Amino acid sequence: MLRIQLFGSPLVESTEVAPIQFRSIKIEALFYYLAVTPGRQHRRTRLASLLWSELPEDKALGNLRYAFWNLRQVLDENLFSIDRGTATFQPDDSVWVDAHEFEHLLHAVKNSSELETSEGMPRLQKAADLYRGEFLAGFELTEAPLFDDWLQVQRAALHDKAVEVLTKLGSDYAVHHQLPKAIAATKRLLELEPWQEAAHRQMMQLHALSGRRDAALMHYQECRQVLGEELGMEPEPETRILMERIRSGEFEQAPAPAPTSLSEPHTLSTPLYGRQKEYAWLVEMWKKVTLNHSGLVLLQGEAGVGKTRLVEEFGRYVTIRGGRMLQGRCYEFSGPLPYQPIAAALQTQITQIETRRLSLEEDWGVELAQLLPDIRLQRGNSSPSLPGSGQGMDRYRLFEAVAQFLRAIAAKQPVLFFLDDLHWADADTLDLVGYLVQRLAGTPVLMIGSYRPGEVLHQQALNILQRPSGGGVFYDTLQLTHLSTEAVQQIVKTITPLAYNDKLARFLYEASQGNPFILFETLNEMQELHWLQSNAKGQWSLQVADHCLTLEGLINADADQSSLSSLTAGQPKMPVLLSTGEPAKAKDTLPAKDNLKLAEVQNRIRRRISRLSAEGKQLLGLAAVVGRPFETKLLQEASGLPLETVLDNLDDWLARNLVQEVSRNEQRTRETDLLPALSHYRYDFSHDFIRAVVYNDLSQARRQVLHYKLGAALERLYAHQLGKVVEWLAHHYYCGYELNKAITYLQRAGQQARAVYALPIALERYQQALSCWEQLYNPSDSQIPTEAWRQRWDLLL
Fold it and tell me: DSSP letters along 118-176, please?
């Protein structure tokens, strides 16, 4: 084996011969020149003049003959093909040259898909590792000017390629939220080109995204010093603006990666397979936005097909390039809250940026406070709302206040506004979305709304969003379909590299039909049955014969397990790669196709849940009844269990990928309610399809009891902040059949909805309150307070 290292100080090593020593520096130079150009025929006269241009041709050729004789003495003579006129270096597989490997890796990446594949970033990282320093560092041959010219050209070309590698590697790591690796790549880039101001800005952004604002500001000073010393220049305005944003706290902070230990479950991350075209299309839409265009994209697809995952991956791209991502989500189980997903997304901005610094007129701040009370504290204003001119005008002023707030944010940085699960949105929310799209024309805001066709609660309102009605705004629809067989194969290769075979890939495609959520559930079940096991390095291997890889085999294997409550204790969990975070109803959400029946998907989830302890199953039912992200304190209060017991069960759910942790400050969180946090962390089901199965399997009596317990727990926990949980109290007491309290909170919820001009929701709350009264009393009873009747009558008028 012959190893030739040309990056950094050159080194030639052989495992079969004594240490290689060249007789002269020019012979060494000849070898390096040939090693860079394997398989190429060189005219001997050209090689002679390259190294001995000062000599007559015959003497130069004589020196060349001696040089080849020496090379064939110290190396395998079969490596060289030499005749009267030409010479060729023809290495076989036993020869490794770092520069060849470097070029090969770059070629493979450039010819791969536009979106990074599983091999993309590892190949780039390997190429970066190969580049230990400049080409032939420290090797000089000034007495051979033609060779020296060639050497300088090679160094510059390979230097540029290394810069290209590190630039792309830093960007890709950042997009995939691998911030420490992104920082390392960018640091190496700046070592190569310390004057590259764009790289300095990226380093500042990466430090800020990692929560290290001081490091980001210190790096700005380093940037300023380097530019002053190298170029005699001050940083560009773009760099200074970025520094000000970081210093003021306006640059959005992403959560630092959670610390890991050897005892923690192994997880992997993977690129987004099968969505290259859609991802690239969204990137093109974002480029329009950065040129001060605005737009609306409606993303449609069935449950579990990957809508949320696609936009969240795209959101990383936006954030690392200086954009701001706002995210809100609609819920099925908790009942509609007026403007809830939009209000929740804007609420995060109040906590992340100093709203006093926004160019928002005070009048609009007062109006916005009706939807976001906390903005009064930020802006130091507690004035009442401005007088309006009737419900229609007041509603317009609220909508315009939201538009002005978004415009003020977008003046600082372009905005991606993602509203998830619009099929569950109330009509008022959809009206507000339509208003914002029109009013923000010419503002750098891209709105993306995801929904499931056939499940839309307010189809007419959603249809209006799909009709372009003004200039300066682009509209489009993007539909996600099932993954192809090739995409499933790539996913399986990434997750289970040691277990991969065609049979496994075909089985998983058969089980999922290309639906990522179902594929994820199948892998979870295989892991819980020990069909897949992980070693200490987190590598998964297949522990079942190929002939058992059938749907029937999976079901039968599960049936053979009589006691599996501790089956996965201490086992690493399958990588959370395919969970799309999308809610799903328990019926009519996933199509029945051939051997894939909706009932089997539900049963697959039920089989996994059946392995929990009795206590764990009961507590999971309580979590499902919450209907949104939950906290351990709420589960403890409602269940009456010790906190340690709740945490033990929560750990079990996490290990089985039934739930996942969503930090309250996490940009990707699907926590979109406006409740004050009881603790730093919240949890949510890995997919709402799991929540739906758990909830629908509860008896009506059990649901009623759990709703009541949650209502009582919320009253105790938020005793001094009941105004913030009125809608949830109304929901849980109404479903818990605690009619007296339901009436109280339904009336208050109706008043809150009316205050923000969400009249359909207000009417619904008052009607629910009246329904409760009618169940408690005879409608003709004179004891029924007239307030509910008056409110309902006013709304009907």
Answer: TTHHHHHHHHHHH--SSBTTT---TTSHHHHHHHHHHHHHHHHHHHHHHHHHHHHHHHT
Domain that holds residue 168: 1-193
Is the model's pLDDT at 144 over the cut of 70?
yes
598 domain-assigned: no
Q: What are the angstrom distances between the C-alpha of 751 and each of 226, 292, 338, 743?
A: 60, 39, 12, 12
> What Å distances lie between residue 492 and 121, 352, 360, 385, 396, CA to CA?
18, 38, 50, 56, 51
Tell which wins on pLDDT, 267 or 692: 692
CB atoms within 10 A of CB 304: 31
- Residue 34: Cβ within 10 Å count: 21
Residue 260 scores a pLDDT above 70: no
Domain boundary among 578, 612, 636: 578
* Sequence-ordered strand ranges (E) for 251-306: 294-300
Q: Are residues 723 and 795 in the same domain?
A: yes
Q: How confident is the model at residue 376 (pLDDT cuts 50, 70, 90)?
A: low
Contacts 24+ apart (CB under 8 A), 710-717: 710/622, 710/625, 710/626, 710/634, 710/638, 710/736, 711/736, 711/738, 711/741, 712/638, 713/634, 713/637, 713/638, 714/634, 716/637, 717/633, 717/634, 717/637, 717/678
* Residues 207 and 179: beta-carbon distance below 8 Å: no
Residue in 690, 656, 684 with CA at minimum distance from that of residue 670:
684
Write out pLDDT tens, residues 769-778.
888 877 876 6
Q: Is 80 exceeded by the pLDDT of residue 460?
A: no
- The number of domains in the chain is 4
Q: What is the mean pLDDT of residues 506-520?
A: 81
> What is the model's pLDDT at position 19?
65
Highest mean pLDDT among 77-81, 184-188, 389-393, 773-777: 184-188
Residue 578 has pLDDT above 70, yes or no: no
Same structural domain for residues 315 and 412?
yes
Q: Which CB contacts under 8 angstroms, 24+ apart, belong to 162-170? A: 162/128, 162/131, 162/192, 163/189, 163/192, 163/193, 163/196, 164/106, 165/106, 165/124, 165/127, 165/128, 165/131, 166/128, 166/192, 167/199, 168/124, 169/121, 169/124, 169/125, 169/128, 170/199, 170/202, 170/206
What integer is the mean pLDDT of 234-252? 80
Kindly state whether residues 495 and 572 are assigned to the same domain: yes
